Amino acid sequence: MMSEPAGSRLTPEVIDMTDSNTVAAQQPTGRVALVTGGIGGIGTAICRRLAQDGWRVVANHHPSEQEAALAWRHDLAGEGLTVDTIAGDVSDFADCGRMIAAIKADQGPVAALINCAGITRDKTFKKMDEAQWRAVIDVNLNSVFNVTRQVWEDMLEAGFGRVVNISSVNGQRGQFGQANYAAAKAGMHGITMTLAQEGAAKGITVNTISPGYVETAMTLAMRDDVREAIVASVPMRRMGRPDEIASAVAFLVDEANGYVTGANLPVNGGLFMH
Ligand code: CAA
Questions:
Q1: Which distant-in-sequence residues (6+ apart) come within 8 Å of 246 by Cβ?
Q2: 28-213+242-267 in CATH: which number?
Q3: Given CA atoms 266, 269, 271, 274 in this order, what sign does their dihedral have?
Q4: In this model, does residue 258 exceed pLDDT 90?
Q5: What is the pLDDT of residues 103-132, one digit of tens each?
Q6: Best label site of 15, 62, 90, 146, fewest CB within 10 Å?
Q7: Against a cut of 0.85, is the pTM above it?
Q8: What average pLDDT does this structure show over 22-36?
Q9: Is 176 in the pocket of ligand 1 (CB under 6 A)?
Q10: How far is the CA of 122 from the centre of ligand 1 (A)?
Q11: In the chain, where are the structural domains located?
Q12: Which of 116, 122, 189 is the best mutation target for the ligand 1 pocket, counting ligand atoms within 8 Å of the beta carbon and taking the most?
């Protein structure tokens, strides 16, 4: 059985980058990028892209996903990409503290944080119970505090940092059946704008990306007719691809783009313009 070592410490794998089957990373930045929800649909594309761009990438996953994470890491190794994984419950502040300390000890301080972990518990408001409300607020919004707070002081000290919050078009416009999700996603950008101001003079940029409907397990879980109706309303008449979100992340974490902060970048095929 595949499993990660107890304590969910990083389990670095040495990949021979001289192998002709491997993809050579671009100039290594030597900097650590942490992607929460890193083994999910959008998270995977972000990890892949940042690793290709030379970041030392750590993918966070939920503690219940140890086996999936190991298989995921092997898949990326097969593409010639070295990406570490670490378990951590982003809805739990103390567990995030443990996770960040482990990354710092093994890899160094986190220079780029991509807050990508997210869940849905879609229900019309009259059917939504407290557990569904709290689960989404905890995982999608409180997580941003829980993880970012633990890396923020290191970024201030380093005089460099990149935080990218993966929000949603539905945080910008609301969505029938998503009171919890829309509230959390809108809240993410409130944090973004505040931290952008607090980090601006310290070399830290903080931005939001608001994807539209992207081809992932999350959107696949929707009722087919509901999803098809939404996609029909997208001016581009298609869903987004995870790599299209990753491309926007790559732009925002690039040192060359240090003058972009507090922005909310829509990547939604034209679904919402304002
Ligand atoms: N606008 C107005 N009315 C709507 C509506 C809409 N968009 N959707 C449904 N209704 C109406 C229905 O016509 C129905 O009306 P009546 O009671 O008068 O017949 C009523 O609302 C109940 O509709 P449903 O039968 O669909 O209700 P349900 O409880 O079975 O389903 C739901 C509710 C599951 C939340 C469903 O509405 C739904 O899937 N909504 C879309 C949620 C969504 O977009 N999720 C995105 C997930 S992916 C993601 O979140 C990623 C991202 O960032 C984009």
A1: 42, 45, 46, 48, 49, 50
A2: 3.40.50.720
A3: positive
A4: yes
A5: 999 999 999 999 999 999 999 999 999 999
A6: 15
A7: yes
A8: 72
A9: yes
A10: 8
A11: 28-213+242-267
A12: 122
